[in-house]
Design brief:
Strands 10, 11, 12, 13, 14, 15, 16, 17 and 18 form a nine-stranded antiparallel sheet that branches. The protein has a five-stranded parallel sheet with strand order 3-2-1-4-5, sandwiched between helices. The protein is globular, with a radius of gyration of 20 Å. Helix 1 crosses helix 10 (287-296), helix 4 (97-104) crosses helix 5 (106-115) and helix 6 (129-139) packs across helix 7. The two termini are 38 Å apart. The longest helix has 18 residues, at 228-245. 30% of the residues lie in helices and 28% in strands. By secondary structure, the chain is of the alpha+beta class. Bound molecules: adenosine monophosphate (AMP). The site of adenosine monophosphate has 14 residues, from strand 15.
Length: 358
């Protein structure tokens, strides 16, 4: 696939902050973005050259969009696979509809990962109460029940401590198709971000250690403090997944690390990721710029880290601290321009960069 040079128009499906950061990186390379999103408030539209507001199922709008751009990517992983499949023959599209399909279904995702000889939590698909009883018996307690689809930031999942709480959790999700996972007694959560081009060339960023609260990412710390062997295993897992998916663009693998140093794959995010926001301020090429480069067929940029970083999300009212954060030495403030503030909503982030120690 030949490169699309500066002046190219890049379409982005999804209008959130990830799209905003992709568009900002693209603009620096002379690439104009056109955001396609159904939602009213779309932080990406503030910084894009063009925008279409339409549902992902509107084929007329999608066909027009495909004619107006040279390539299309996603910033939202739950874009319907049908939308991706509709656009794929009409424009350069990455990542592929097939890759999205794997990442959108937790059972397909974990089966795919296990098929590559990589570990995940033990799991079982749950469609009925009988499935749930069988799965609870097989996997034991505690366990976690999650919807197969459309869960994010801890939504649509519950920790199960008894058969009764399992039944209640299944009822609470309306007995939607689900997955039961054995609880992983991890000592750390981490993520590794890789970027892969059309030619199969790939690069990886330093592994981040992630702290969650209530299922939402609070903080990412790099370097991770994990052993070199663990970090190498994490990177190798992500490369194996990206290669097997024939992935083009930036891909994130979320991991559990056990006391024995085992690396288990929790989730594949087929996109740029919150735990990689630090790369804007402390990597030679950010995850967003490398994503744009990959999709357009440019050489991938250096992922070398230029400092030690802590990235903290500003959730809900925390963004009101902006004045103090703006005054803090070494703090890089990012605000997403969201007008509607809600508890737990990602309003911005702040990255603190210190000189590199290791
Ligand atoms: P997820 O939506 O799958 O990324 O899960 C959100 C968070 O819930 C993770 O970051 C973990 O902190 C926790 N979690 C999810 N699955 C498991 C599991 N199988 N064992 C232990 N903790 C889990």
């Amino acid at each position: 696939m030949g490169p699309l040079g500066p002046g190219a128009r890049l379409g982005i499906l999804g209008g959130g902050q990830l799209g905003r950061m992709i568009a900002l990186a693209a603009a620096r390379l002379g690439v104009k973005c056109h955001v396609f999103a159904p939602e009213g408030e779309a932080p990406a539209c503030d910084v894009a050259a063009a925008a279409t507001r339409a549902p992902y199922t509107d084929e007329d709008a999608l066909a027009r969009f495909a004619e107006q751009v040279d390539a299309v990517t996603i910033e939202f992983e739950n874009v319907p696979v049908e939308t991706a499949a509709f656009l794929e023959p009409r424009t350069r599209f990455a990542p592929s509809a097939d890759a999205l399909a794997v990442a959108q279904d937790r059972v397909a995702e974990k089966s795919f990962v296990n098929g590559l000889s990589l570990q995940t939590a033990l799991f079982a698909p749950v469609s009925t109460t009988a499935d749930l009883d069988g799965a609870l018996k097989r996997l034991g307690l505690p366990a976690i029940l999650k919807t197969r689809r459309l869960g994010y930031d801890g939504k649509g999942q519950a920790r199960i401590k008894s058969a009764e709480s399992g039944h209640a959790a299944f009822a609470a999700i309306g007995e939607a198709p689900a997955i039961l996972e054995a609880f992983v007694p991890f000592v750390a959560e981490a993520s590794v971000i890789v970027c892969r081009g059309w030619d199969g060339a790939h690069v990886a960023y330093d592994v981040a250690r992630n702290l969650h609260a209530g299922g939402i990412l609070r903080e990412s710390v790099v370097p991770s403090g994990l052993s070199r062997t663990t970090e190498e295993a994490a990177r190798a897992a992500a490369f194996r997944i990206a290669d097997a998916l024939g992935f083009v663009g930036t891909l994130t693998v979320e991991l559990f690390i056990t006391a024995e140093g085992d690396v288990l794959v929790n989730e594949i995010a087929p996109r740029v990721h919150n735990s990689g926001h630090w790369t804007i301020d402390a990597a030679e090429t950010s995850q967003f710029e490398n994503h744009v480069r990959a999709v357009l067929g440019w050489p991938l940029g250096s992922t070398r880290r230029t400092g030690d970083v802590v990235m903290r999300n500003l959730l809900g009212a925390e963004a009101a601290e902006w004045r103090a954060l703006a005054a803090r030495e070494g703090a890089r403030l990012h605000l997403y321009g969201k007008e509607e503030m809600a508890t737990g909503r990602k309003m911005g982030h702040v990255t603190e960069v210190r000189p590199r120690q290791m």
